[in-house]
Amino acid sequence: MYRPHAWIVNIGNELLIGRIANTNAAVIARELTLMGVIVKRIVVVGDYLDDIATTVREAVGSADIVVTTGGLGPTDDDITMEAVAAAINTPLVLNKAALEMIEAFYRKRGLQLTRERLKMAYLPLGAEPIPNPVGAAPGAYINYSGSHIVVLPGVPSEMEAMLKIALNRLAHILPELCVAEEGITIEGIPESSLAPLLRRASKLCSDCYIKSHPKGHEVENPIIDVKVTASAPDCDTARSKALAVLDYLKKLIQGENSA
Amino acid sequence: MYRPHAWIVNIGNELLIGRIANTNAAVIARELTLMGVIVKRIVVVGDYLDDIATTVREAVGSADIVVTTGGLGPTDDDITMEAVAAAINTPLVLNKAALEMIEAFYRKRGLQLTRERLKMAYLPLGAEPIPNPVGAAPGAYINYSGSHIVVLPGVPSEMEAMLKIALNRLAHILPELCVAEEGITIEGIPESSLAPLLRRASKLCSDCYIKSHPKGHEVENPIIDVKVTASAPDCDTARSKALAVLDYLKKLIQGENSA
Questions:
Q1: Where do the CATH 3.40.980.10 domains begin and end in chain B?
Q2: Burial class of residue A215 in the structure, from the number of CB atoms within 10 Å of its CB (0-12 exposed, 13-18 middle, 19+ buried)
Q3: Which of A238, B99, B145, B246 is geometrically suited to a Cys-Cys bond with A180, CB 3.0 to 4.6 A?
Q4: Is B147 strand, coil or helix?
């Protein structure tokens, strides 16, 4: 079964100076993964037209789905729509549906459209605006040359509300696949001793992914979370596959301890 | 004054499936920024040799400083050293100093060197190991073709302890520059109304960077954090420059409100 590949592109200088951690990427990556998409890369760039356009162009050339966050607001450094348009060689145009959303937003609040507010109605030619249930700036969905580009704002509450809308819009290209994750915590075995057992357990299932996360110190107090991710057309099968790998791993550990 | 550019490359499937947020990148970005480095890009890739090597090669070609995290442990998917070696066309070799660190670590704990433990002593030819005060796997510092590559583990406590050592190692290329950040919170003005005032205030200082972060809703309850970052050879000057921009902005807001 083909699983679409995705890149996530997060735009904003606040991420590059470390003022905030990139929680948006984690939220989007988790949602995409649970829907059967393989996230291949996350790239953070600053509020610079060339950096954004270059990265979006590379993403569109590499992935089926590209999700961007940030740079949709009214200030001068909010230039994501312009950069996405440049990346796909498309003009930035006043989008009527986006204009209606923005007019309705400000009219309801008794405010005029200023130059800064009007700016948020400009989308790449051919884009569909994604309504923003929380703030003013619409997002955009663009189907370009076989790639699906989703442009979302950077404010987490807005991003999360619009991500749901965007994923519904992408439903037709998502695989009918359930991804299950099961885990165990193993105490008392250094990761370097667990490694050969993980290697053997991973051979049980070709659709499974096994990963160890050390939580304690390597030797004095080894605590290791082992997570197994498995995919299948239905969730019960996916879960069974993941649990089977963990059961086999437990047996290998018991065998090692009793040897 | 020339400020070195940096890329941060975070390696690990757990980031791409959204199990954890990339806090390592935020910590590294903040430390580098405070030392006068401009972080240009953060890239997250999975535990795949080609993806890591391609990204590190691109980073080395684009930045003065490349910091990687993750993939240094004893398991089979810990392949960062191999990928960095491939990226810079250098063989992976048993590093004597790294071997001594690892031997000492396990000897102290009464454990033998296994294949998995020995693996952590292989570094790209010419690399200097960075000692790990917390765990087993050393990091690496590599000076390659004018770029400075720092390879750190993914476990945050290990990464943070070793980042300090690595930044000392880089001290000779860091500018003598202090970066100051000052901020105010502005309530009651929508970001779209604040935008033209920010544009005017930003013209006061060419070394300053002004950024607005909406915290409340655009119109009902507008709360906006405005942060100004300024750099200068000494911290007092940097702070004064940032405060001057904020003072000017406050005057513009007062003028707007009384108009």
A1: 5-173
A2: middle
A3: A238
A4: strand
pLDDT for residue A167:
93
The answer to whether A21 contacts B19, with C-beta atoms less than 8 Å apart, is no
pLDDT score of A259? 62
Residue B4 to residue B65: CA distance in whole angstroms: 7
Burial B81-103 (b: 16+ CB within 10 A, else e): bbbbbbbbebebeebeebbebbe
Q: Nearest C-alpha of chain A: how many angstroms from B256?
A: 15
Q: Please state, in angstroms and rounded to a whole number, the distance separating the CA atoms of residues B42 and A55.
A: 11
Evaluate whether the domain defined by B178-258 bears CATH number 3.30.300.100: yes
Output the pLDDT for position A69: 98
Interface contact flag, B74 A20, Cβ < 8 Å? no
Q: Which chain A residue's Cα is nearest to B136?
A: A218
pLDDT at res. A178 = 85
**pLDDT over 90 (residue A34):** no
| 8 Å CB contact of B136 and A74 | no
Residue A176 has what pLDDT?
83
Question: Which residue do the tokens 């790209």 mark?
Answer: B124
Residue ranges, chain B, pLDDT below 50: none
Question: Given an 8 Å threshold on Cβ–Cβ distance, is B42 in contact with A106?
Answer: no
Q: Is the pLDDT assigned to residue A258 strictly greater than 80?
A: no
**CATH no., domain A5-173:** 3.40.980.10
All CATH 3.30.70 domain ranges of chain A, comma separated, are 178-258
Q: Return the minimum-mean-pLDDT range out of A34-43, A159-168, A248-257, B121-130.
A: A248-257
Instruction: Give the residue from B44, B67, B69 with the most A CB atoms within 10 Å of its CB, the best one to mutate.
Output: B44
CA distance B159 to chain A (A): 13
